[in-house]
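User: I'm writing a tutorial on reading structure tokens. Could you give me a worked example: one chain, its sequence, then its tokens, then a sentence or two explaining what the tokens reveal?
Assistant: Sure. Here is the example chain.
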Amino acid sequence: MKYEWRKAEKELYLPKTTPMYVEVPAFNFLTLKGQGDPNRTAFKEQIAALYSLAYAIRMKLKNQGFEYTVYPLEGLWTLPTAPIVPGQFDKADLQYQIMIRQSQQATKMDLVEALEKVRIKKPNQYLDQVNWETIADGAAVQILHVGPYDTESESFAKLDEFCKEHQLERKNHLHREIYLSDARRVVPEKRKTVLRYSV
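And here are its predicted structure tokens:
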């Protein structure tokens, strides 16, 4: 039976449009770090590198008898300093670590083998910058944001108010975004993004 994260892990990936508290365990990810405006070509090439490797690993495991849906693209975002006005900042200052979660059946060796194949089939200058990392958000709050990325501050305001009401303190300035919609195919007004930060 094919493993579907949308069905098996609804709490982590399909929250409601109201804030909620969640405990997020450690998972393995393919990760790639960068800085700058996510609208530039380099960012798209970095995403392509991650997906090429993620699908190569998926195909290997499928051939071994385990089939699953590739997890969605995620990103940890921050700024060198907190913006004076929430939601207003220069996108060129953004620091990020984009990633794709891996199945529990996958190993770092699968990444090594995938790199060898993808370098030949789908050359990409960012392939050798991809790392295998274990990351745990731990205690966190999250919400489903529906709409353009530029209006995320509205949903973050709801998370901040939820934390205030429940005596929760934000752990750091990092926040996670999980992209449930393909930005190339879904209009900004209908895009779905999980927003989460640790507390």
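What the tokens reveal: The beta strands are 20-35, 73-78, 95-101, 131-146, 175-179, 192-198. The radius of gyration is 17 Å.
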